[in-house]
Amino acid sequence: MLVPVSWLKDYVDIDIDAKELANKLTMSGSHVDSLIDKDKGIKKVVVGKIKKIIKHPNADNLVITTTDVGDTELQIVTGAKNIKEGDYIPVALVGARLPGGIKIKKGKLRGEVSEGMMCSMSELGIDQQCIPEDEKHGIHILNKEYPLGTDIKDVLNLKGHVIEFEITPNRPDCLSIVGMAREAAATLNKKMNIREINIEKEAGDIKEYLEGVQIIDNDLCKRYYAKVVKNVKIGPSPAWMQSRLIDCGMRPINNIVDITNYVMLEYGQPLHAFDAKMIADKKIIVRRAKENEEITTLDSAKRKLNNSMLVIADNQKAVALAGIMGGENSEITNDTNAIIIESANFNGRNIRLSAKELGLRTEASSRFEKDLDAGLSEIACLRVCQLIEMLGAGEVVKGHYDACDDKFEEKIVVLNPANANKLLGSEIRTDKMLEILNSLELKSELKDGIIHSIVPSFRQDINIEADLIEEVGRIYGYHNIETKPLIGTLTKGEKPTLRTIEDLIKDFLTGVGLNEITTYSFISPKAYDKICLPEGSIKRNSVKLLNPLGEDYSVMRTTLIPNVMEVLSRNYKYGVEKASIYEIGKLFIPKGEVVSLPYEASTVTLGMYGKVDFYQLKSVVDLLLSRLGIEGYEYEPEKQHKSFHPGRTGNIIKNNHVLGIIGEIHPNVLSNYGMKERVYIAELDIEMLALLSNMNKKYKELPKYPAITRDIALVVNDDIMVKEIEKVIIENGNKLVESVTLFDIYKGSQIQEDKKSVAYSIKYRSYEKTLTDEDITSVHQKILDALADKLDAKLR
């Protein structure tokens, strides 16, 4: 927001320089981005009058002028095409300085002496986007006669300063000169000069031009205020108005458009003017657009709309995009005789979304999207009418329409002065608090020791006591509050259990030689096809992004297997012979049909290929679970998961809880990723690991007594799992079995076709005495009997 200090002075008696004002406003909470000097270093540029123009003898595109600058006449050579004899122009004298450090010297152009330079608006430091279209090319022609030799800074109002503010979204009231004047008055402890808006003469009847305003979609339009001006005279706006518009970064266009822009800058309320004769049936209708309805906007672009957007229409067509831009079909032209002035209040969220969808963000939409004060509509419209009357640009018609669905109800917020001082660490007197709040137009009074403040409609950001405390603190000045030590209870912070477990897992896996990877949380829906998930799989139920980067990043992942496979396959294609990786990340699980944030599950996924097998990955998982203190888990065959090989995959189970899955990736999946090496992957639920982990370590002394080892070879049915045999051995070992180690599995000519031979080494040990053969024989026989009875196992 660009705020000319001279404009602020219309409302506040500012008796300090611009730099000090900017510093004080900064200290009271207004974010000053920069302080701009309007003259931008201009020196020795004066008003001149072209007395004579002759053709340059040596150049077709140049002319020689005789220019009177008051005390002398200068010969100036120029290539400008828009000048004529009698024009008053800015002349940079020899020795003059222009913005950007340019210095004017006496010189020759094609053999003819040139004693200065005629200046365009851009050469005087005016931003290109603020220069009127007819002034963008050529010398600036002054709009009237001025005393020759007058400093151009006085003529074009190029003296003084402009303060640039960064306005936060919660303070739309500050997107105006009046709003910033209110801040300046409170900061400087001055009274604000509120100007009364009067229209001296109104003629005719508004119904001759406009018979009514109807708001159909009142959820998107809170208020629509309209007046009519007749006998409109289109022309340029006065120099003072153009100067202020340029200072605020806007381009002057014509008197009517300039007045609406001027009032928007002054009060923060966007306005629009329609050519009254272009409104069919003399009726304004505020409605949602029809699906695929089209409108050509003032920028000559044809835009297709949908029914989420709001338009201003008549009985036949849309004439404007509400709160964004007017339509070309109701544009004011030089033939316009009567105008309808719109001053409305629209739903901020709808304006923001519509502008974004159309790719059309304007000065109006940038204000409306912040939810403006509905009370501004009438004030701003009357101010436009006042300026039109004052500048002789038309006659105001008697009457108005005010379609208002949302009447603002005043809020009363209370403040306990003791709470304010406690929170601020200050000792501000109650009467000072009242003075500060009232200076901000928060009508406040003291009742039974409590301050009651009536919040005006333009301060929608004030709702609770803390908001009032902030107002008191910033205007009083945080720099005026004595620094005091913090008072409070200190608590020791620590990481949550889940984060601690994640860190432990990360340290362990990195320590055993795996490399950590990090991938995007959003993936392509086609990734589920690549890992061969069935069509009805619950893992295909993903959270879809509303605004994805592309199809490849359009859903949130429900498994890390595609991410790990992408990294492994990329390394494989680059010729990396072996890789061992892991990723700790989130899975995003939708919560049914209800629109809400998804459940985020923490997962660790390990992947390997190249001179490795299932048992190497299994050993890493076993060591990890041991590191977490998880015991008594089992591996159960998993044959339904289509991403894995059905005969080489298992679920990790403990107490009926599934900790994860481990196995060899299915050849079909490998083919989808272009890999010919076997890949082994394990995916573990970190939250389940954290739930079952036991980080309390118990130590016992080393065994004093020796162990006895017995080997057995058993013939069992081919479908019996190794874990079943080990379970029987341990259960019948009378607590003397220290370990059971499988060292051979054999199938061949000496074994029946549906049988297999398994060989185990069983280690027996007692912590109470040295075992003898007699001690072992009975236990060993008991184990053999149990194996024969439960599994039909026979000694080989």
Description:
With 796 residues, the protein is of the alpha+beta class. The chain has 6 domains: 2-32 and 164-188, Phenylalanyl-tRNA Synthetase, Chain B, domain 1 (2-Layer Sandwich), CATH 3.30.56; 43-155, Nucleic acid-binding proteins (OB fold (Dihydrolipoamide Acetyltransferase, E2P), Beta Barrel), CATH 2.40.50; 202-404, Phenylalanyl-trna Synthetase, Chain B, domain 3 (Phenylalanyl-tRNA Synthetase, Chain B, domain 3); 431-480, Phenylalanyl-tRNA Synthetase, Chain B, domain 1; 497-692, BirA Bifunctional Protein, domain 2 (2-Layer Sandwich), CATH 3.30.930; 708-795, Ferrodoxin-fold anticodon-binding domain (Alpha-Beta Plaits). The chain has 20 helices and 40 strands. The strands form 10 sheets. It has a 7-stranded mixed β-sheet with strand order 28-31-32-36-35-34-33, sandwiched between helices. Strands 3, 4, 5, 6, 7 and 10 form a 6-stranded antiparallel β-sheet that branches. Strands 12, 14, 15, 22, 23 and 24 form a 6-stranded mixed β-sheet that branches. Helix 6 (255-267) crosses helix 9 and helix 19 packs across helix 20. The longest helix has 19 residues, at 773-791. The chain is elongated. The model has no long low-confidence stretch (mean pLDDT 92).
Overview in brief:
The protein has 20 helices and 40 strands. With 796 residues, it is an alpha+beta fold.
Q: Secondary-structure map with pairings?
A:
Blueprint (H helix, E strand, L loop, with lengths): L1 E3 H4 L9 H10 L3 E7 L5 E13 L7 E6 L4 E6 L9 E11 L3 E2 L3 E3 L2 E3 L1 E3 L33 H4 L5 E6 L10 H12 L13 E2 L8 E4 L5 E10 L8 H9 L7 H13 L4 E4 L7 E6 L5 E3 L5 E3 L5 E4 L4 E4 L3 E2 L12 E8 L1 H11 L4 H6 L7 H15 L4 E3 L3 E4 L6 E5 L1 H8 L5 H10 L3 E5 L2 E6 L9 H12 L20 H15 L3 E2 L5 E2 L2 H5 L24 E2 L4 H13 L5 E11 L9 E11 L4 H14 L6 E4 L6 E11 L2 E9 L1 H6 L6 E7 H7 L15 E10 L4 H10 L5 E10 L8 E10 L8 H19 L2 E2 L1
Parallel strand pairs: 12-23, 13-16, 28-31
Antiparallel strand pairs: 1-11, 2-11, 3-4, 3-6, 4-5, 6-7, 6-10, 8-9, 14-22, 14-23, 14-24, 15-22, 16-19, 17-18, 19-20, 20-21, 25-27, 26-27, 29-30, 31-32, 32-36, 33-34, 34-35, 35-36, 37-39, 37-40, 38-39
Helix pairs in contact: 5-6, 6-9, 10-12, 13-18, 19-20
